[in-house]
């Protein structure tokens, strides 16, 4: 099965690129080197990839631009491998859709383990049944089994938390007022008691944040209510 796993390595330093190709080959996967952003785009558009390893500082087209393009146009997982150590750079890359961030100089065993882990996670998501699912970012809701998965791992929610998330995911652009949420989930008239909604929303957000600390799924629209964060 590993023979068909194709990994694109976008790294302009020839020695590092060769090293990453060796790591990938030893793991049983098929590496393809690209040495500039422009070359990478040609490969990205010419075939399907299972994983992309991406340096941020590239000639031709920056790693950030490639990351935006990949996450906008496909579901291919991306691991950043960069000499940029600033926390903000890491945060920006993860928020922009990167699945992992490894700083140079890196440990060969760690890179190998993270590649395996990332591919495993995506394989689990791909293996999940596609019937009656609602998806948002790495969040998958199976409306038949009444289960929620983040990054392929099941999230344990109470019935109320599930209903709140279901509402938000069913209408991703809609802003739900507290009254909307309460009357839809509790099936009772809303008399302005915010506490019930606040507690359930806080618990739901905490569970989502714990499952993936680098992603935000629900945003508060001040003075109005809540909606799914795009």
UniProtKB/TrEMBL annotation:
The modification 4-aspartylphosphate is found at residue 55. Keywords: DNA-binding, Phosphoprotein, Transcription, Transcription regulation, Two-component regulatory system. Gene3D superfamilies: 3.40.50.2300, 6.10.250.690, Winged helix-like DNA-binding domain superfamily/Winged helix DNA-binding domain (1.10.10.10). InterPro entries: CheY-like_superfamily, OmpR/PhoB-type_DNA-bd, Sig_transdc_resp-reg_receiver, WalR-like, WH-like_DNA-bd_sf. GO terms for cellular component: cytosol; protein-DNA complex. Residues 131-230 form the OmpR/PhoB-type domain. GO terms for molecular function: phosphorelay response regulator activity; transcription cis-regulatory region binding. The keyword Transcription regulation applies. Pfam families: Response_reg (PF00072), Trans_reg_C (PF00486). Residues 6-119 form the Response regulatory domain. Residues 131-230 bind DNA. It is found in: Cytoplasm. GO terms for biological process: regulation of DNA-templated transcription. This is DNA-binding response OmpR family regulator. It comes from Thermaerobacillus caldiproteolyticus.
